[in-house]
Amino acid sequence: MELYLGIDVGSVTTKFAVLDNGDELVARLYIPTEGRPVNTVQQGLKLISRQLPEPAEIMGVATTGSARYLAGALVGADLVKNEITCQAMAAISHVPGVRTIIEIGGQDSKIIIVRDGVVADFGMNTVCAAGTGSFLDHQASRLKISVEELSRRALLGKAPVHIAGRCTVFAESDMVHKQQTGHRVEDIIYGLCQALVRNYLSDVGSGKDVQPPVVFQGGVAFNRGIVRALGEALNTEIIVPPHHEVMGAIGAALLVQESMAGRHNVSQFKGFGISDVEYRTSSFECQACPSRCEIVQVLVDGRVLASWGGHCDMWEGSLVGQKA
User: Fold this and answer.
1) In what order do the strands lie in the sheet with 25-32?
2) Strands lying side by side in the sheet with 238-239
3) Using an 8 Å Cβ cutoff, are 7 and 63 in contact?
4) pLDDT-derived band of residue 131, with 50, 70 and 90 as boundaries?
5) Whole-number Å distance between alpha carbons of 250 and 15
6) What domains does the chain contain, in order, with CATH numbers?
7) 127: Cβ–Cβ under 8 A, 6 or more apart, which residues?
């Protein structure tokens, strides 16, 4: 069986998706990154390999996400693509008429405007937690309930209270006040979901032409309270596709399949055996110009496997193979 592997390495979670030639999802994996992207990619490869049918051959690999260059260097990616392209590709493949894609992850969020099957506009938030999953995680922790329980109880909210959610600190203070004044916890929780949606639409979605069909992707789409709040805010049905949490990886796999089609090149994939290789990362400050870019390197046995991070391409590949 000929297969295509997509890897999406985010700040909070890392996702793997394997597709066959018919674009069917053969295997998927969703695991926490825990601040160790190298170890997580290695662990993920080991786990995903156990889900694959035999015999199977990986015909192409693509990486995406905030650590896409690092992951690409580790696995020998044939393609490295940004998250916007991969999320859009996956959404369009599942909902061909999609016009708006909402993606909310653990520490960032995106909106993608699609017209006639092409990305026409997009917006991102990578600096404020108030419109991301970590906002919910923090408040669930304060309430001493799981995120799953928070999702369930949000749907029980009948008279949601207004939470001042522009900042996680203010939100927590406001939630404490609402609890002290006797509001039901379920109403407070759903008010919190509405606050996240308000933050998202006023920040990431500001000035965007949001039109249905609207597809909601990312790990936060597990939260039915957020799905409900988005539907009410936009006054439209919110489509949550199957496997929404790994859509970035699915999009990467679709793109590498398209990229490798008709080519006689053999994939650069280094194989699942890299799970046992010892990698090391380091960085240094480039002194070539006043920008002082931080250059990141991945090393194996003291030799540079890959380098990146500059505003220019001075260091891209220039150190590969050299002793560090």
Assistant:
1) 25-32, 13-20, 2-9, 57-64, 79-80
2) 118-125, 109-115, 100-104, 214-217, 238-239
3) yes
4) low
5) 9
6) 2-87+248-272 (3.30.420.40), 97-240 (3.30.420.40), 278-324 (no CATH)
7) none
Residue type, 245: E
Compute the distance between CA of residue 149 and CA of residue 165 in angstroms, rounded to an integer.
20
The rounded distance, in Å, linking the Cα atoms of 47 and 50 is: 6
- Quickly state the pLDDT bin for 57 (edges 50, 70, 90): very high
| CA proximity to 16, closest of 204, 24, 25 | 25
Pairwise CA distance, residues 127 & 33, whole Å: 19
Residues 6+ away with beta carbon under 8 Å from 189: 143, 150, 153, 154, 157, 225
Single-letter amino acid, residue 46 = K
pLDDT(310) > 80: no
Check: CB of residue 103 under 8 Å from CB of residue 92.
no
State whether residue 57 is helix, strand or coil. Answer: strand
Maximal C-alpha separation, the chain: 69
Nearest to 197 by CA among 174, 239, 231, 171: 231
Among positive and negative, which fits the CA dihedral 177, 179, 185, 187? Answer: negative
Residue 308 is predicted with a pLDDT of 75
pLDDT reading at 132 higher than 80: no
Q: Cβ–Cβ contacts within 10 Å for residue 32, how many?
A: 12
51 has a pLDDT exceeding 60: yes
Peptide bond into 53 cis (omega under 30): no
> What is the model's pLDDT at position 126?
62
